Please model this.
Amino acid sequence: MKKYALVTGATSGIGKEIALKLTQKGFSVIAVGRNQAELTILSEKYGMIPNVCNLSNRDECVSLWEKYKEYDICTLVNCAGFGYVSDFDKISIDDDVKMANVNVLATQILTKLFSSSMKNGVILNVCSAAAFSPEPLMASYAASKSYVYSYSLAVDYELKRRNSNVRVRILCPGAVSTPFEKTAKVKNPLPSISAERCAEYAIKAIEGKRTVTVTGFKMKASRFLSRIAPEKLVLAVQYKIQGSKR
Model:
């Protein structure tokens, strides 16, 4: 029997690498993205099932579930997302809304719907180390990831309490070398891990028992410090870090 995995943001960066690794593990991967040309390559070269979808559109998210709800999907990876490094008032309202729709609403809709139709398996929500604290100059992005982080933890707990065979896992990478940096308009990116290395963490998260996976010692230390440091200090440090990217 075929086992299916559906991956959003599958045409580039972390999502693409996760999709490739799931294919190597024998999954029939449903690759979701906006780039038809890249989806065609994934289909022809790796045998993935291509699906063009604009995840900023609520109706298209629902249609995506309706199309595949009868498939034996045992892994859902919500990886699509983007952000900007900028003063909050210099980001257009349209871009802010689109970011919230893709980063938050699409993840919430797909998590809610697929958790109801999956017989068993894992939903991996790709979050970010930005979820652990507010980040001036990336205010909207960090807030969107904080939402996903909180939502995912709560949903996983609910599923666990009702003895569901579906679990939610959260991946929180730090800086990763992907096209995200171009979209975010980062001019001076921080030292980062490769998308392939990040995907290795993702597979471990899918196969493991930890609810939250943080990539690397530095990000784990950063998470710990953000918990114990005064909020004013955290804000000042994040402002300096994000400012260094401009």
Notes: The chain has one domain: 4-243. The first helix runs from residue 13 to 24.
